[in-house]
């Protein structure tokens, strides 16, 4: 993902160790947020029309004074300034290392021990999640997140235990039926931004990931529900995926006439297609998907769930890949 680089123009004009002075030299650009359930279940919920809610921008915040990172050992105040074995933080500059060590020395263990996140990652071989969390902190610091944003992201990813059970019995699926990781992707016809990421993940994790699709049309987009019903009608003829590709390729042209045009191009039986689009069963199916998504607490789109938990990271290939790797390592 691209990031926006902030530039400190006068190093002599500021005391960067002074209380209340807190500037990130690397501020991240707004990233498009855009799909693993059950020993892996990932659910992505994408809606209309913007299709994405960006994470909060990095912002200035007061920081407590801290010891500068050293090559090894603990700082005079007791802060541990060495990363756990196996974690390379060389990409972080000196300022970012200060932020990194401050956070991992302050945040508690992911596994509940009475020690810091960093000490847990170093000393508790049974808590691999703490090591993963420390690595995640390094990634967030590199992206320009503030201390409070990092703490919030850690809580959502590693401390949130709320899971959701979603019914995929009627959802179209692509991938290996016996895959360990199930991706359930709640989508809208107007959001194709996440599709390249999903394709890349399916390609990289062949045999380990399968993808289910569910609908989440939003009322502010007048053509979304109609398009979702058309895709459901196409599914009844076994051609959901090629038809859905047509919708994504023409997301600004989803009138009834255009939907029928795409159906013809996909090779659908037009009489059956029209009948299914008008059938109460198809309409109820789309509504069921949306109701289920709302019950799962969706407040913005896209929304992801991994193993039934809400995915709170940015929806790029690298971030999604790391989540899946962690699921596979369990």
Protein model, in words:
- By secondary structure, the chain is of the alpha/beta class.
- The protein has two domains: 145 residues, no CATH class; 131 residues, Glutaredoxin (3-Layer(aba) Sandwich), CATH 3.40.30.10.
- The chain contains eleven helices and eight strands.
- The strands form two sheets. A six-stranded mixed sheet has the order 4-6-5-3-7-8. Strands 1-2 form a two-stranded antiparallel ribbon.
- Strand 5, helix 5 and strand 6 form a beta-alpha-beta unit.
Keywords:
six-stranded mixed sheet, alpha/beta, Glutaredoxin, 330 residues, 2 domains
Which sheet architecture does the biggest sheet show?
6 strands, mixed
What is the arithmetic mean of pLDDT?
79
Approximately what portion of the residues adopt beta-strand conformation? 5-15%
Sheet/helix structural class: alpha/beta
The strand count comes to 8
Main sheet: strand order? 4-6-5-3-7-8
Distance between the ends: 27 Å
Evaluate the radius of gyration.
23 Å
How many separate structural domains? 2
Taken from the alpha-carbon principal axes, the silhouette is elongated
Give the fraction of residues assigned to helices: 25-40%
Task: Offer a concise description of the structure.
This protein has helices at residues 94-106, 117-123, 128-142, 147-159, 195-204, 224-235, 240-249, 256-266, 270-278, 280-295, 317-328, and strands at residues 4-5, 26-27, 41-45, 173-175, 181-187, 209-215, 303-306, 309-311.
């Amino acid at each position: 993902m691209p990031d926006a680089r902030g530039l400190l123009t006068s190093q002599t004009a500021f005391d960067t160790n002074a209380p209340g002075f807190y500037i990130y030299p690397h501020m991240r650009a707004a990233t498009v947020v855009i799909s693993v359930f059950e020993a892996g279940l990932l659910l992505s919920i994408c809606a209309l029309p913007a299709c994405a809610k960006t994470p909060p921008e990095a912002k200035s915040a007061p920081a407590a004074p801290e010891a500068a990172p050293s090559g090894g050992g603990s700082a005079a105040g007791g802060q541990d300034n060495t990363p756990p074995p196996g974690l390379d933080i060389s990409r972080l500059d000196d300022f970012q290392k200060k932020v990194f060590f401050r956070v991992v020395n302050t945040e508690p263990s992911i596994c509940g021990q009475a020690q810091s996140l960093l000490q847990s990652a170093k000393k508790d071989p049974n808590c691999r999640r703490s090591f993963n969390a420390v690595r995640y902190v390094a990634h967030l610091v590199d992206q320009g997140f503030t201390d409070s944003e990092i703490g919030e992201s850690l809580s959502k990813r590693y401390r949130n235990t709320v899971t959701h059970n979603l019914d995929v019995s009627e959802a179209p699926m692509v991938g290996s039926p016996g895959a360990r990781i199930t991706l359930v992707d709640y989508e809208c016809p107007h959001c194709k931004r996440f599709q390249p990421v999903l394709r890349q993940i399916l390609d990289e994790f062949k045999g380990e990931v399968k993808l289910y699709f569910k609908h989440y049309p939003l009322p502010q987009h007048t053509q979304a529900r109609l398009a979702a019903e058309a895709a459901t009608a196409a599914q009844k003829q076994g051609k959901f995926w090629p038809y859905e590709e047509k919708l994504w390729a023409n997301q600004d042209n989803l009138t009834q006439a255009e939907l029928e045009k795409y159906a013809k191009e996909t090779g659908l039986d037009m009489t059956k297609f029209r009948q299914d689009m008008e059938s109460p069963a198809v309409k109820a199916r789309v509504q069921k998907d949306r109701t289920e998504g709302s019950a799962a607490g969706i407040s913005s789109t896209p929304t992801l769930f991994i193993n039934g938990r809400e995915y709170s990271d940015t929806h790029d290939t690298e971030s999604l890949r790391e989540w899946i790797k962690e699921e596979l390592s369990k």
